[in-house]
Specification:
Chain lengths: 116, 109
Amino acid sequence: GAGVSQTPSNKVTEKGKYVELRCDPISGHTALYWYRQSLGQGPEFLIYFQGTGAADDSGLPNDRFFAVRPEGSVSTLKIQRTERGDSAVYLCASSLGRGSGGDTQYFGPGTRLTVL
Amino acid sequence: QKEVEQNSGPLSVPEGAIASLNCTYSDRGSQSFFWYRQYSGKSPELIMSIYSNGDKEDGRFTAQLNKASQYVSLLIRDSQPSDSATYLCAVYNFNKFYFGSGTKLNVKP
């Protein structure tokens, strides 16, 4: 079916506001990753889900960031009390999640977050 | 020290030449290695994966892995202007993918 989708494609918010970013992975993919990419940098790992559970959330920068994947499909990244430094492109990727070797990730188009 | 290091470039090559992109990584326990291409304003797309020492060829692309030297490279033969993009090296280690900052490649017609 379709690839990974992310909404919104762009989000402009004011400092201190709350935002939610959504990721809809490829059907059947059990592994889902969130990344943050700043200009001129590679994607920075935030969190990894295997099914419904967060298998590794060590990349979340602080407790303002939280992500859920309640039914093992769609995931939402939530950012509280946004700061200007949170401005970046937030990328979601999914993969089959078959094993420990790191199988192919398919990236969504990203959400560009701008905090004014 | 960053997990994955790449020269930011830009690397400029003429059309038809071989482009050589390099990457080093810090964790000897790293398990899998990937090269992604990212066009400006777009998301990364996988070009090659490599899991064991040696060379792996796919069309015009060859990935090379040397675990003893903690070094991964990507060769692009017969470079085309459409290959102009940023190339990201990624290393997989215990549930996480670590990305380098990317090397910008310019292929001049």
